[in-house]
Fold this protein.
Amino acid sequence: MNFNLFAAEEQAIEKARKLGEALAVAAPDCAADFEELVEAFQRSTREQRRLVRVSDRLQAQLGAANQELERRRQEAETALAHLREAQEAIIQAEKLASLGALVAGVAHEINTPVGIAVSCASHLADATRELRRLSDDGTISRGDFARYLATAGDTATLILTNCQRAAQLITGFKQVAVDRASAERRRFNLSKTLQETLASLQPKLRPSGHTVTVLCPADVELDSFPGVLSQILANLVMNALTHAFPDGRAGRLTLAVELSDVNMVRLSFADDGVGMSEDNRLRVFEPFFTTRRGHGGTGLGLHIVHNLVVGALKGSITVDSAIGTGTRFVLLFPRQTPERD
Amino acid sequence: MDSLNIPGTGRTPTVAFDFATGHLRMSGESYPDDVATFFGPVFTALRAYLAESVLIPIQFDMELLYFNSSSAKVLMNIFQMLESVARVGRPVSVIWCYEDSDESMRELGEDFSEDLHHVAFSLRNVPVGSIG
Ligand SMILES: Nc1ncnc2c1ncn2[C@@H]1O[C@H](COP(=O)(O)OP(=O)(O)OP(=O)(O)O)[C@@H](O)[C@H]1O
Ligand SMILES: [Mg+2]
């Protein structure tokens, strides 16, 4: 099919040309002017053709630009999705690492009571063997027997209390470990979870010589994620140990809980260490912000803490700090975590 | 006559009319908010220049990369004015620049030269990114 966008104009021009020929005979004076008019119309038609082309070209460019825009938007979205996945993976890795540290802590902590129980038991075994020998020889005296009873009583008590301590530690750690690993939501006693977490950090805390004060009402029950809370506290404690006392001085760490109203928990963790500059304070929650790059700092700790407080506990976290006066993190979150959105 | 120099903006082209040497150039992009406001002074200056009786040759470099329909009509009008002075004996050349891969711009140039009979029209392809 032969399609001509300007067929009508061409017909009109053809007609005008014929009219021009007729006019040249009928009214020769007008012929030149008429010829000029036809010329002008012809040029105008050609210009119209060009304008249509220009306009088509512009539309095509616009279309291409839009496609490019859409492509870039999709690229950006894909990149964002990848970033989110990577972040998720990092959080998982961090969780595993903190679980590993926990296991090491458990082993170390349980060592003490178990060690005491073992040496008490071996002392008791020695005393028993000695008593048997005296009994076999028939030389046992009333005094020997009384001494043995005292030793047996003392060591049995020590064995019992230390085994109980070990059992208690294991229960606590088991809870912390399960909570950390499962990120399960349940009802729990806040004070108990905080104590258990601090106990798991003892191997790190004790050698530092810092004083840890916990001010928490004994009866605060939460319906939330104890593992998340434990991970947050572990991070804050480890940060205080790593960053707050570079000179090795024994400092003061204070963990305080109050109910700002019946439904909101206000948990603060403070150290009286070196503090930080205002510039740093504003950036601590940024991913990869660390003042210890190259010394084992990834700068993800507080970023993850922030995500956990906001994402899991549906709360908020702020930080107060000044050079020389120490650092205080304040978490505010509901006692009963609201159901997901 | 003083030369006319208008620096380009995002929407309006660079206009460099050096009347003393006869070298006229328009480059960049052209889609002004108001064609009349932008091109009015350009036409006034060009008309006055072409009305002078000096006959120094004119070279017009068309280096627009992107222009809207109104600017296209402006170009056609300018070409028509140049054609008029060329018809009465003034040497005029128009150089239509297009970027290497821009086939449709080259074809537009051919289209635009259709009504130029006395003006020496030529196309010049330039590497992408070298003008603007
Ligand atoms: N208690 C604190 N006292 C002083 N500075 C702190 C304290 N806690 C954090 N900071 C500062 O905040 C920065 C960021 O902490 P964050 O936990 O995010 O990363 P990091 O501890 O450096 O590295 P990572 O936790 O990955 O090992 C630290 O590098 C440190 O400069
Ligand atoms: Mg850290």
